[in-house]
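Example: Chlorinase.
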Amino acid sequence: MRPVITLLTDFGYDSYFVPSMKGVILSLNPEAVIIDITHSIPQFNVHKAAFTLWASYKYFPKGTIHVVVVDPGVGTSRRAIAIKTRNYYFVGPDNGVLMMAAEDDGIIDIRAIENRDFMRPVVSSTFHGRDIFAPVAAYLSLGLDITLLGSRVTDPARLPGITNRVSRNIANSMIIYIDHFGNAYTGIRESDLGVLGLKYGDELRIVIPRRNTDLRVRFLRSYGYAGDGEVLALINSEGFLELSINRDNFAQKYGVVEGDEVTLFVIK
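Written out as structure tokens, the predicted fold is:
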């Protein structure tokens, strides 16, 4: 099976950055299959990149090498790292962007990328995606032992975790992700519903203080159970309680952004 390398960046689709990385990879391993997860991560948004990686990494073949370059600290003392997990490799900056996915799969080893033999001959201070991460991914696809990259890392950077407070009929959380359709994911998981006492057909009061938003919505199984333009709550494909509008954009209509606090009350 040809090795698969994925790319996830905030580079956009209208510059030379992504094709340069692909060129480096293919020059070292012409047999590599390169898949673009996305290059439309909002600039410097490490949290959105981390969630996007977590939501998508597991659907690729075992052995896939996931490269993430959302790297506002490029050229500073932040480390470049490669992670070996039970089923995958992850390559990118040590700013927490890799850890949600890597820990989900189960980390075996983390190495600082220090060995210049596996970088481009000249390493710029502003484009480590091309000069460090792309060649390392290519060498890993050729069978490189991760231990040859550098010293073991025992203190990788981590992003703050999702903090929820869930009790009977009330939950406090935050908006952790907004998708292309404007659906707003809260941090409340499907496994929290029993404690919350929420079941399909119940009514929820949704309060988002920063936006002065106070809504009453139905908790439904899917979008199609709501009327056109109706606000609803549901459990989405990743297992989070989501706030949506059927055939409309919830985040846009209510001005919600990732990081907004949200309180949910089950109305009995």
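The domain at 4-148 is CATH 3.40.50.10790 (Rossmann fold).
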